[in-house]
Amino acid sequence: xxxxxxxxKINYEGPNSNKDMAFKFYNPDEKINGQRMEDxxxxxVAYWHTxxxxxxxxxxxxxxxxPWDKFSGMDLAKARVExxxxxxxxxxxxxxxxxxxxxxxxxxxxxxxYKNLDEIVAMIKxxxxxxxxxxxxxxxxxxxxxxxxxxxxSSNSADVFAYAAAKVKKGLEIGKExxxxxxxxxxxxxxxxxxLNTDMKLExxxxxxxxxxxxxYAREIGFDAQFLxxxxxxxxxxxxxxxxxxxxxxxxxxxxxxKDFKFNIEANHATLAGHTFEHELHYARIHDMLGSVDxxxxxxxxxxxxxxxxxxxxxxxxxxxxxxxxxxxxxxxxNFDAKVRRGSFKADDLFHAHIAGMDSFAVGLKLAQKLLxxxxxxxxxxARYDSFTxxxxxxxxxxxxxxxxxxxxxxxxxxxxxxxxxxxKIKAKINQYMLTMYK
Length: 439
Ligand code: XUL
Ligand code: CO
Known about the structure:
The chain is an alpha/beta fold. The protein is 46% helix and 11% strand. The longest helix is centred in the last third of the chain and has 27 residues. The site of cobalt (II) ion has 5 residues, from loops.
């Protein structure tokens, strides 16, 4: 059965196309520094926002009108799989991502949940035989059900810890079955609300234990996905244990997990943490911890996770700059953890939104590569730190000086000559590149 009858395959038509249902900038076969755009960007569709989201918000009911609305239960789950593969194919995305509960309803018991999952996973596997679409990552939703009210791996209840472990164990088996490239842990409820009832040390130790057991089980069954932690500072809990990349990295190092995990960095989570998207990508990259990206954007005026489709070209450019400097994303990709606005309730909007996001990252990729090729940012940065390439600076970097020698150097100095940081100059240059690139 077809669900998006009025939509044809979305093709690349170039920057001057008047057709809405067409890519203006995302040209999968175009070579960027010798590599196909599609293979660098590795776009993924987020199952939850595209096929299960109803567009409700805390003040109002869902508005989404979907061609699978008439189904319920397992029939609905199956209809969504059919619709999903039609969507991937028409959009031409190479990857998808899901939580366990996105693809199959929870049953009355864990056993029944497994049974539902097995049926849908077998169906997805069948579709994968005739489609090129691959699983970028899957994850366990250990945050929505009321049993996770006090956390999952950081719950005060050992039974809940075990339940969460069982769901992740099943998720790892599913990831292996479907050939997932990565496996994600977003700690939705792994945090706390108040210290007045919380043993933070035990909760964090348990979280560390949980990750070790997950990694050990994946190894045991021969699932070689890249493990990814997805930091988020708040929402739903007021204090999340994986606040941002820096605190997440400290956590991983503290529990001896830094060799087995990398980060899945989400733009809107970065801004909620008071960082820019590129800050989080950069911080992860310089520590060799950049694994994957949840591509979206927050609203500049709102303090919560709005998960908008990424359309800010400045941001996608600086993000792609980091990704190119990282040598790509390896087993990760750009997953659109983004939802259409509540007012964009038609099924067609799902296509428009993904086209907008894919085009925005394609522009970002081309621009970032050009900035790199021309050394626009790199030359400025190396000139700025030139003092560390010779003389006393070189001695500092090489570890051949000490405080006494530095004092002697300082005492011999006259006026210190500092150069401008040239921020406005560089921004004007980037704007010039942006506005002339497609001329
Ligand atoms: C929530 C969020 C999740 C994770 C996967 O803010 O980003 O959808 O990406 O659990
Ligand atoms: Co996310």
